[in-house]
Amino acid sequence: MRRPPVLSTHLWLGLAGFIAVFPIIWVLSTSLKKKEDVYQTVRIELLPAQPNLENYREVLTMNNGIFLRWFRNSVMVAS
């Protein structure tokens, strides 16, 4: 049986890696944008001009830190 060329194998693996990693990069990029910038941006930008950590602060402090309790419970169940 013939072996596939190394270059085409590497290209396919690179494409598969990009397809697997790009959504994670996109989610992290979107989490650094202001709420109003998420849907109003006309062009695609991976790094926002002004990164904003307000979204993380809001999630971690909402409802007296209930997200941290949920996270702790998930870690305990998964381990």
Largest sheet: none
Number of continuous helical runs = 4
Strand content: under 5%
- The number of E-state strands comes to 0
Morphology call = flat
- SSE class: mainly alpha
Cα-atom Rg, whole angstroms? 19 Å
Q: Looking at the chains present, what oligomeric state does this protein adopt? A: single chain
Query: In terms of per-residue confidence, which ranges show pLDDT below 50 for 5 or more consecutive residues?
Result: none
Helix-residue proportion: 55-70%
Between the first and last Cα atoms, what is the distance in angstroms?
44 Å
Q: What is the H/E order?
A: HHHH
Mean pLDDT: 88
What does this structure look like?
Helices cover 67% and strands 0% of the residues. It has 79 residues and is mostly helical. It is flat and about 60 Å long.
